[in-house]
Amino acid sequence: MKPTKKELKLFHNAQSPIFGFIILIVFSFSLMGLDHRKGIHNEIKEKSTFLITPIIYILNLPKNINESLKILFETKNQLFKKNQELENKIVDLSIENQKLILIQAENKHLRKSIEISNRLGMRSINAEIILPRINNGKEIIIINKGLNDGVKMGQPVINNLGLIGQVIFSGKSFSEIIPITSKKNIVPAIFEKSTDNIIIRGNGDKYLEVTLFPSYREAKIGSVIMTSGIDSLYPKGIKIGRVIKITPQVNNQFNHLLIAPYSSPKAFSQVRIFLDKKDD
Amino acid sequence: MIKKNTFKRNEALTFCIIFFVTLLLSRINIPFITNYGFMPDYFLALFVSFVASRFMHMNIYILFLLGLLVDLLAGELIGQYGLIFISIYFTNFILNKYFIIKSILMRNSQYLILTTLGLIILLISSLSYELNININLFIIKWVLTYLVVLLYNQIIRNFSNET
Description:
The complex is a heterodimer of chains A (280) and B (163).
Chain A: H1 18-38, H2 40-47, H3 49-72, H4 76-114, E1 122-130, E2 134-135, E3 138-139, E4 141-143, E5 156-158, E6 163-170, E7 175-179, E8 186-191, E9 197-202, E10 208-214, E11 224-227, E12 239-248, E13 254-261, E14 270-277
Antiparallel strand pairs in A: 1-4, 1-14, 2-3, 4-7, 5-6, 5-14, 6-7, 8-9, 8-11, 9-10, 10-13, 11-12, 12-13
Chain B: H1 2-25, H2 42-52, H3 60-74, H4 80-98, H5 104-125, H6 135-159
């Protein structure tokens, strides 16, 4: 008896998935292309934050319980001491603030006289960093402010030390930030004491790098790098980091610059997000 | 008939538990590892184990939908994990069609092939500004993911009471 087509299959008895495979390959490529061009991933993710919110809650639960217990068992003496410290800090800050008010007034006057727009005049809000700090092998920072607080995709994030990153996703009550040290982040920058524009990129570890910096241009160890503002995304003049290592490339036409960022994501818990420009 | 349904429900529950644990693991960093590029791809490891052990006898369409779910929860492009999972499924089908996989060595080689394929597709389809591929980083990730595949495989075997 002649074997049928199905019986001719070797060691696997299941039906061949070749038709489904081809259809799904085409479909997945179309989806990836569409997502890359239109960014549908974030739109869908925005509408399905209810799937991720419980995970974030569970991951933050031990930390929250620990903090609650700490507050519960804090003695009166400890609270009194803390209060004293905070009051001292307020006095220091108010003195500092008086100086700043004077400087701000001078700055405004000078800007007006030389007709430079105030690029740092932006509305901003404070947010707290929560867990997790990683998503499927990619470094992210999650903050407790989202769409409800006016946080949107693309907004720059800083703290008192310098630039931290950029908002890449905003849910209703939380947002995801890509740190400047991530491989998937690039920032247009400028040296503090020269006019050389550069593009810096995270190296996926603790540092930033400029891979192809022309060797005829001057770069010194310790040079401070700040945002150039040419992308209209990051305000001009935010400190990013300083050069810690200069390595000549093989053909000596370019140098590799290693930059240590001023603010490490592991060294702070509060950040400030620039919302939009103030109406002057 | 009733017995068969109960067994399927147990399998589905097992799958949900392992999937949820994987979701948590993918968001927890390993202590002392500062470079997150080293982190194993837990979802890839999970689905290589599921597909290779034929757990729940998932078909290619269900696998693709699960891939889209993973993309939504932990991916960066819609369709990326969908593509990876269907490629793993199809490769596994081809391997099973032309080879009788009986010994542990053969089975481990099968896992290695599927993991490598998945990681290569992930590397090619990922969005990055990198000019060069860091081979050392890729190899470490590959080894760690493979170890997680073996671990998942052991867990799945324990759940499905295989010897």
